[in-house]
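Page header: ASSEMBLY MODEL / two components / 290 residues total.
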Amino acid sequence: MRSALTLLCASILVLPSFAHGQDAQSGIAEVNGKWMASFNSGDGAGIAMLYTADAVLLPPGSEPVKGSEAIGAFWQGSFTESGASIELKQVELETNQNSAIEVGSYVITGADGGHADHGKYIVWWKKVDGSWKLYRDIWNSSMTP
Amino acid sequence: MRSALTLLCASILVLPSFAHGQDAQSGIAEVNGKWMASFNSGDGAGIAMLYTADAVLLPPGSEPVKGSEAIGAFWQGSFTESGASIELKQVELETNQNSAIEVGSYVITGADGGHADHGKYIVWWKKVDGSWKLYRDIWNSSMTP
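Prediction written out in full:
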């Protein structure tokens, strides 16, 4: 009886969950696109909006930065080299109901077109009021200091 | 009809899932205990066993290190200061069926008892053949270089 019900549950739940996975993939890709555009135009306030209100940024060489407002200020303060641009590339994504984990890599190109930095990141995403937002964000450079 | 079935599914599924969360919490705490013990005794092979065979380590200042064997060698090579000890502290844990995400902090104490380093990490865990193992592992120092 219990296993028959479990099978029934599976048939009811698997299809929406598959659709949800696709929705998460495209929703997160869209936010990553906005994140890159905000970074590349030096728009700290634009980046801040992509994080949950209670997000925590975990940057190298800094204590954790708590809350989307402080996170926006952090990024604004990092735009020291005008004209630098970042490219994020997703390597893996696992999605659950209102949560996702992403592993990716980044490359930063300097204003002169030269290679400035590259490294990797993990972002823990949360779906808040129907929108995917960065909840925890950690990265480090792969280059030797 | 569908919502009645969903309620029924919930009552069947919630209890095991809650129990699973507790199991994950204690299982991961146990592995973190072994990880610290291996680190503190300079046992790279012991650390390697705690990662999935296809794990990827994402260390600062290094390209990703792929596979538990290479990860063991990485840690073995990092035990340059004999007598240093690490303490991991879990800050957050979200568990799903065979996957979990953990945010934490670390403190490294030097052989002389002084503060050597502190920072934060995110680990993506996977449950493989009933055992929780580190699947993706990234961290960075909070200290200014």
